[in-house]
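Re: weekly structure request thread

Next one in the queue (366 aa):
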Amino acid sequence: MASRILALVGDCYGARGGIARYNQDLFESLADGSVEILILPRLGDAAGLTLPRGIRQATAIFNRLGFSIAALVAAWRFRPVDVVFCGHVFMAPLAFVLSRLLGARYWLQTHGTDVWNDQRSLTRRLIEAADMVSTVSRETRRILLAWVNLPPDRVRVLPDTVQDVFTPGPPRPAFRDSLKLGPGPILLTVARLAASERYKGHEPVFAVLPALREKYPDLVHVVAGDGDDRARLEAAAARMAPGIVRFLGYVPDADLPDLYRLADLYVMPSTEEGFGIVYLEAAACGLRVVGGRGGGTADAIPDERVGAIVDPADREALVNTIVCLLGQGRADSSAVEPYRRSHFAAAARALYARLVAQPRRKKSGI
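Done, posted below.
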């Protein structure tokens, strides 16, 4: 009989963003014919999508009480369950209860600020109760181990993966022509424009654009992404760098490789990135990147073949870093090979095998 995972996640198929993509990559790596996965999301509509063999996704329920009730019903119907996967510490209370009721192992996934900032005693106890905790970066693992009482070998790093569609090459001519960006150079930022994620570093970049225009008269900053902070950021760009910033809004996944390929430098000096999959995507397309000091960025920008890390509050350093990297040409895309899907899948399967080798818990009910 196949091993079964009940996955509680914020979002997965039919949703946007790096965490949704991470969940998809993880579950597709595990569902290799010997594992069945039932995904219970709070956001995302998978209706009409053809999901990989062995993976099912229930209808999303955002309401906390409704989600909890639906999860209990789904757990009963999906028995026996070997692993309860919790994709966000917000759902850890429910994941913990379900794992005890089902006699299943409890796997908690962490991404960064979710466990950096929430250090309440209840959160700590729920993390410590996990049979395995996985993090996307070494920095998140370090911060976590500094405030929870967990054996280090129970906290494993499973970084983001970059999909195979992200490769070097020229953009489609029609795509470049449709944007009418001029000769450039083109600075690019791809990120959610959310008020809760102002650490992404859009405004520090806007602040240095006039100085960069003095050296590069045709320089353009392209901002891809949407969110509840877009109007404020557009106003900030108009005030700080009039006529230099171009907001594209949401860009479909199919167009992202071409967007990276037409740019000259990826700039996102984020200070609280859990990892930063966009850095990998850009570098895989041959684009050098500028990241911000702090968080898990150092895992995504491991050395000068990919780019550089800078303090976004230091405007002079930000300008000098951008100018320096623009003068170095394309990135060495081989630097991201360790993050390709095959490596990620092998690491994910090894972690899962290690987890299910542990004895099942004694059921508490259901």
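The longest strand covers residues 3-11. The chain has a mean pLDDT of 92.
Next request, please.
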